[in-house]
Amino acid sequence: MRLLIADDHGLVRDALSSHIERQAPGAVVVGAASVDEAVVALRQDKAIDLLILDLRMPGMNGLDGLQRVRTEFPLLKVALMSGLARPDEIRGAFTRGAVGFLPKTLSATELLSAIQTMLAGERFIPADVNTADTADGASFTRREREVLDYLLQGRSNKEIARSLELEEVTVKLHVRGICRKLGAKNRTQAVMRAVEMGIAS
Amino acid sequence: MRLLIADDHGLVRDALSSHIERQAPGAVVVGAASVDEAVVALRQDKAIDLLILDLRMPGMNGLDGLQRVRTEFPLLKVALMSGLARPDEIRGAFTRGAVGFLPKTLSATELLSAIQTMLAGERFIPADVNTADTADGASFTRREREVLDYLLQGRSNKEIARSLELEEVTVKLHVRGICRKLGAKNRTQAVMRAVEMGIAS
DNA sequence: GGTTGCTCTATCCAAAAGGATAGACCAATA
DNA sequence: TATTGGTCTATCCTTTTGGATAGAGCAACC
């Protein structure tokens, strides 16, 4: 079993590899501090079974880093790891071919069994991550959903109106509807609620 | 040697303790997921030699958590640990009596020697902490960081002013500073940038 | 037919946010 | 000593946002 852990925190990297190598005899863990380093390591070492990619690190740029790795090494198993991830990121990781998502709240023993699961060819999705769409909570109308997309980019009512070919008043109407449904006092709070609830697409 | 590691990421906690216990025979490492849990553990276990506190975790609230621990356990050695190391926070940690600052970019062996150093009664200050000012993207001042925390809750300038006992104008000043540093046009865009960059914790 | 929900627009108004400029204090530093 | 950076405040001003109220078109449904 050969693992490559890509995380810009040397401490996390070393501690993880040390732990895994102790708990799983025969395991070899290699480290990388960026996506670039990971790619170099993968080119040199064709025997790597699983790559664990930190979501927030140099070269990741959202899920671009995952995309890059998947494009160059389409057969490689890749798992994402993150302390704080938005549900849309988790969904995006799986649609881009990741075999697992590892929140850092996982215990070390859970991590080991997750690695076993993924090496066995299964996907690992922890129970507490919310990958669900908007089934729960607020239900938006078509327009509200569109406006919310722009809100999540921090656009002003005027900009949204121009983009959707509406009057500014109408945009305000939908913004108010969104805030009401999310229990938010203003657009900024609405955006944060949306992120927390994983509505952010 | 008894260590208490307070970090809300179970993975980091377990991996670190596993590593330390292997490298330093006789060491006992206890974990806590929040400042509250750490305080409870410290009350029960009077033999703890060193507390390692993650800077970004529930109950920390800047350096308040450190202050709390120092007030209740003035003789305890406390080291801070953090992924992003900003000079003002590091200085603040030392003025509040911390015996060391551990950036997560440290290697695991460096960590072990840092622990030895601190247990021997010396302070541990990594070499690169003063130069690593604007390493990755935005570096906020103390006030900006406080204001950003409220921005991330969708609070208005007036509310923030009341909470921080400032005038509204001053809050606006800091909000503008935050937006400038994040390249955001307004507060909503600023919070989204912060979320995307993983500054929101 | 009538009702309901989504849509769009309009006209008000008040509050909040954003921006510019300027003065002042203090601590650290060159 | 002079300077710089962070902090706080003030006075202007414009733009944006939020909120209320009201009217109208349209499609789905009972």
TrEMBL record, chains A, B:
PROSITE patterns: HTH_LUXR_2, RESPONSE_REGULATORY. SUPFAM superfamilies: C-terminal effector domain of the bipartite response regulators, CheY-like. The keyword Lipid metabolism does not apply. GO terms for biological process: phosphorelay signal transduction system; regulation of DNA-templated transcription. Residues 133-198 form the HTH luxR-type domain. SMART domains: HTH_LUXR, REC. One of its GO terms (molecular function) is DNA binding. It comes from the Bacteria. Keywords: DNA-binding, Phosphoprotein. Residues 2-119 form the Response regulatory domain. The modification 4-aspartylphosphate is found at residue 54. InterPro entries: CheY-like_superfamily, EvgA-like, NreC/VraR/RcsB-like_REC, Sig_transdc_resp-reg_C-effctor, Sig_transdc_resp-reg_receiver, Tscrpt_reg_LuxR_C, WH-like_DNA-bd_sf. This is LuxR family two component transcriptional regulator. It comes from Nitrospirillum amazonense.
